[in-house]
Each structure stands twice: as C-alpha cells, then as structure tokens.
Write a structure and sequence with these properties.
Blueprint: E1 5-10, E2 13-18, H1 28-43, E3 49-54, H2 77-85, E4 91-95, E5 98-100, H3 102-109, E6 112-115, E7 120-122, H4 136-144, H5 146-153, H6 168-182
Parallel strand pairs: 2-3, 3-4, 4-6, 5-7
Antiparallel strand pairs: 1-2
Helix pairs in contact: 1-2, 3-4, 4-5
Amino acid sequence: MSSVGTFAIEDGIGVITIDSPPVNALGINVRKALDEGFRKFDADPQAKAIVLICAGRTFFAGADISEFGKPPQAPGLTEVFDIIETSSKPVVAAIHGTALGGGYELSLVCHYRIAVPSAKVGLPEVNLGLLPGAGGTQRLPRIVGAATALQRRAGQPLLEVPLHFPGETVAKLLRHLHKRRTSQPIL
C-alpha cells in the first residue's frame, strides 16, 4: 500500500483513491501510487473496471513544482499513462474540484470521465507559452473535436468538463462512490 494511495475493490470495481494534500500534485509518490494501483487492478480478476478518484478538495491539480529542475524519477507520467491506456479494463476518472495541466491530461488518458457539476478543467500552461507535455494536444481533439480543442487551448481559462458516461450501471456506481468520498453530488 502506498503512502498516498489506497486501493479497494467495491462491487467488482477497483477503486484507486489518491490523497496527497493540498492539491494532489503529480509528484513521485503520487505517480508510484498510480503505477501500483493500476497494475494491481489490471491483474486482479475480481476488478471488472477501475475508478480513479482523489480525496480532498480537488482532482489532480497538475505537476509537483517542487520537482522542477531536479532529475526525473521513475515512474514518469507518460509511463503511468501507458499503463492506463493499455489497461484491459475500463478506467474512469471521477473528477471534482479542478483538473489542471497534467491532471487534466491524466483524466483524458482514462477511457471515461465523470465529474461533479462544479468541476473545472484546463491546460493553464498554454497561457505561459508552454505546450501541454503529457499528450493533451493529441487526446483533447480526439475527445471533443479539433475546433473545440483549439478554443480550449487558445488560452480560455478553466472550462466545463466534457463528460463521457460508460453506461448507466457504472454511472450509478460512480455517483455513489464519489458522493461518499467527497460529500458532493455527482452528475
């Protein structure tokens, strides 16, 4: 078990909960927990799907700025993304608060996204003249279309979440899980 991640199977769904205050930044401990959790549930026949959720006030709020300028440590974000993308099971990001930068890109690599009505997403690095570095420039247009993706990357601030529901049964389970963990209703 990770210091910032917990892993449980609930009603046949593998639930990865990340709790790394204050903003669930995607630092080394979080990346290790994600790596461990996704590998665990992908190999577990009891888990029919995987839900990624964060404790606290927000989904992943991007990179851990304390790691800037330091040598990279494995697993990197793209390595974690590869595990999610090649998972044999559907992966659902349950978003609340904000999903920014790499956090938004993490939600985009998941097969489905679901969010509380107040959730906001964005790639704020474009406002600093930086390109999103974890695949957002490719995944966002595939999900929302090229025209919408260009508007979103053109410096618009935080945006409403494009939702993708995997089916009513999973959606009901996700509502239940998210409400229980965050005390916020889900769509």
